[in-house]
Amino acid sequence: MSLTLSLSKPGDKAAKLSLNLNKDEKFTAKLLWDGGTDLDLHALLCVGVEGGQAGITSLDQILSTYNVRRKIAGSEVGVIDKNADGTFEIYQGALVHSADAIDGKLDGVDEWIRVDPARIPKKSGEFIEIPLIAMIHPQSGSQTFANVRNAQVQIVNSRGDTLLDISLSAQFGPFIGVQMGSIMIDSNGKAEFSQVGSGFMGDFNSVIEHFG
């Protein structure tokens, strides 16, 4: 199924689509785009109680290349260790990120995040929201999503079948960061895609504040 994501307005209730996954079935979110713009795919492991909002309370819940352990000006930042193949993960493989792609020139998928619901830590009555955030790298200068061509997120099941193909409307052109929907996993393990489209003008810290 293909859909075009529109910019959500305050007060909008996002429509949800069932992903028709078995309970605890692994799936992958793939980011594709064309051109020389450096995009990064990020995901947050937000936790909430049924009837409330999901959020993050720890750096351990942030799957981002910006959260990989490294040194900047002699100080260590980040909490995630990079694997030998360039991938990195949180919660022992609950979410695994591909090696970083610096542009959209690869043939096919540029970056991906694999989700293993069975490894996600949650208590009875809790649900999970995994916002999928695509952001233009700060070193790309003054570029916005108006400079990005054919940005898409695909949701693929464990057998390699594409369940959803999500593209962006032109409304996201002014932004440097875009929430390309969220994966919702309820307390019973049912997975859905929430059609929430948010735009960010600030850096990745503004995204963290939005979900904090």
TrEMBL record:
Q: Which family does it belong to?
A: Belongs to the CAPAB/TerDEXZ family.
Task: Tell whether Zinc-finger is among the UniProt keywords.
Answer: no
Looking at the record, the residues that make up the TerD domain are: 92-211
Q: What Gene3D superfamilies does the database record attribute to this sequence?
A: sav2460 like domains (2.60.60.30)
Tell me the organism: Polaromonas hydrogenivorans
Pfam families listed in its UniProt record? TerD
Specify the protein name.
TerD family protein
Transmembrane helix: present as a keyword of the record? no
Record key words, sorted: Tellurium resistance
